[in-house]
Amino acid sequence: MEGLTFNEETHTYKLNGVELPSVTQIITSIGLVDYSMVNKDLLDYKADIGRKIHKTIELYDNKELDNSELHPLLRNYLEQWRKFKKDFRLHTIESEIRMFHPAYKYAGTIDKLGRIDDYYVILDIKSGGISPSHSIQTSAYKEMLEKNTQIKIKKRFAVYLTEENYTVVEHKDNDLGVFLAALSIYNWKKKNKLILIT
Predict the structure, then answer these.
(1) Are the C-beta atoms of residues 111 and 90 closer than 8 Å to each other?
(2) Burial class (CB in 10 A: 0-12, 13-18, 19+), 24
(3) d(CA 169, CA 166)
(4) Strand duo 166-170 + 107-116: pairing
(5) Which residues, at least 6 apart from 177, have a Cβ–Cβ distance to it below 8 Å?
(6) What is the rounded distance in angstroms from the CA atom of residue 161 to the CA atom of residue 198?
(7) Would you say the C-alpha torsion 146, 24, 19, 192 has a positive or negative sign?
(8) How far is it, in rounded angstroms, from Cα 95 to Cα 58?
(9) How many CB atoms are closer than 10 A to CB 147?
(10) Predicted local distance difference test score (pLDDT) of residue 50
(11) Which of 1, 52, 153, 167 is the most buried (most CB within 10 A)?
């Protein structure tokens, strides 16, 4: 999207030089997700693995993946993604879609936009545990995508991958109200300098 930039290292979005909060940043900053009890080294390791899994799947879906030197760990995760796509008859339309919401001024990256049969879906790929906050996340992504395109999303999914299998959770609750409440709190805390923007 024009004017939107993303810094991979700091995981920050800017619109014409002005920083926008990300969907995950908003949800995390007000306590809907709490990783404070998890060891930082373990969190960093899991985040690194997650990024590599996402990149592997993106390259695979774009038919750009060189399988010959793929690490066995990533190969196992990829095999579960391939099984999921086959079982659900998913056709990937686009991967890693970076967007911002023009009215609410938040940004994020939608993992996958796809079609199953005759309807559009968005998918969030996870390599960790199931959390109710993931439904809030995909609700925010759906709102952002529909605001910027003519596409109407019928279903939202989180696909949880392990080396041995996959689990799919359909997000049926309309959690947009929860997300917008979180965004309001985030903006209030920022305005009152109760939140650190990095």
Answers:
(1) no
(2) middle
(3) 10
(4) unpaired
(5) none
(6) 30
(7) positive
(8) 6
(9) 13
(10) 87
(11) 153
What whole-number distance in Å separates Cα of residue 65 and Cα of residue 63? Answer: 6
Distance CA 89, CA 138 (A): 20
- From 116, 117, 99, select the one nearest 108 (Cα to Cα): 99
Q: How far apart are alpha carbons 64 and 40 in whole angstroms?
A: 33
Give the tens place of pLDDT for each residue, 35-80.
666 677 767 778 888 899 999 999 999 999 988 889 999 999 999 9
Q: Which residues contact 67 (CB under 8 A, 6 or more apart)?
A: 75
List Cβ neighbours of 71 (8 Å cut-off, separation of 6 or more).
Answer: 52
Distance CA 172, CA 49 (A): 28
Which domains, from first to last, does the chain contain?
A: 37-175 (3.90.320.10)
Q: Which DSSP string corresponds to 131-162?
A: -THHHHHHHHHHHHHHHHSS--EEEEEEEEE-
Element (H, E) at 58: helix 40-61
CA atoms within 13 A on the CB side of 93: 15
